[in-house]
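Dear support,

I submitted the protein below through the web form. The confirmation email said the job was done, but the results page showed an empty box. After a refresh the structure appeared. I'm attaching both so you can tell me whether what I see now is the final result or a partial one.
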Amino acid sequence: MIARARLIGVVGFLIAGATGLISSTQTWLLVSLSDGAAEPLAVAGASAVVLLAPLSLTALALGAALSIVGRILRPVFGVIGAVLGIALAILTAPIAIQAPVSAVSAEVAAVTGIRGESAIAELVAGITATTWPAITLVAAVLMAAAGIWVLATARLWPEGGRRYQSERAERRRSGGPLDAIDSWDDLSRGGDPTT
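What the results page shows now:
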């Protein structure tokens, strides 16, 4: 399990980030207005939660960078990922649970020209949530869990570069044949690879 701990963290961030990014373009809420409009107003995830796309892109970047980052930055990335997931869950949960008028007020104001929370609340006859807020809430929980996982297991991950460095050092100590890369490195440092 520890051998795959890095992979679990990376995949967790990538899935959560991709889900959030896709969700930001989907319809989250359908708003029925009391002005007699035949079609309900569709509100996308990016309108309902303005920070959805930036937080999701940050999670994708964290996942990609986590695959190559060193030992010192791993816990930092874990903390950042956990904070991002918690923030996204806090922003998404009210919409997934009760679909408040505040989540649609910007979109309703843009369509109708009416401003003010109380005026918009009077204009809104009903709000129906799609499954996307719930999906995004699950992705936010996954993002926070991936951050906590990285924070808990990062010190146990194997170092990728040392495996190759120890093989070279062993060949040098044993006097064994060096490959072309080792010879070129010796030449670059001013040594004579022929001796």
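Response: this is the final, complete result; the empty box was a page-load delay. The chain has a mean pLDDT of 85.
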